[in-house]
Amino acid sequence: MGMRRLYSGTIVFEVPYEGNHYLIDSQCGDPAMYDGSGVPRAVVDRAISAVESAYVRLGRTPEDSEIRSIDENALKEEFGDARFVSDTIPYGVVIG
Fold first, then answer.
1. Which residues, listed in sequence order, are joined to residue 16 by a DSSP beta bridge?
2. Rounded CA separation 70/66 (Å)
3. Whole-angstrom Cα distance, residue 15 to residue 13?
4. Is the predicted pLDDT of residue 7 greater than 90, yes or no?
5. What is the pLDDT of residue 28?
6. Which of 8, 25, 26, 45 sits CB 3.0–4.6 Å from 71 for a disulfide?
7. CB atoms < 10 A from the CB of 39, how many?
8. CB neighbours (10 Å) of residue 9?
9. pLDDT band at 22 (very low <50, low <70, confident <90, very high)
């Protein structure tokens, strides 16, 4: 079961893993999208799992204005740190 995309853009974070830093789109629930990117599969799988789990724990569909902070907190919990890099739609803008 894949994560339903809640956000129509990307939200990119940098996460640490084994001495390196990797860019993760927290709204990309498809590991195949990272093929050839140089991001280790373990990082991709852990990131997807962390974000999906955060939404399950939330128990409801988050508001657009909550998504970035939910994703950031989930990645920080999983990797010990997560630094916001960019998003394609300005944070907090209502989509739809």
1. 21
2. 6
3. 6
4. no
5. 87
6. 26
7. 20
8. 17
9. very high
Tokens describing residue 8: 């129509």
pLDDT of residue 61: 86
Whether the pLDDT of residue 89 is over 90: the answer is no
Can you read off the two tokens belonging to residue 23?
């860019």
Q: How far apart are CA 39 and CA 3, in angstroms?
A: 19
Residues 6+ apart with CB under 8 A from 90: none
Report the alpha-carbon distance of residue 21 to residue 88 in Å, rounded: 21
**Contact at 8 Å (CB) between 26 and 71?**
yes
Tens-place pLDDT, residues 32-80: 989 999 999 999 999 999 999 999 999 998 888 899 999 999 999 999 9
C-alpha torsion 46→37→24→3, nearest 10 = -60
Task: Please enumerate, as own/partner, the contacts of 41-44 that have beta carbons within 8 Å and a separation of 24 or more.
Answer: 42/17, 43/15, 43/17
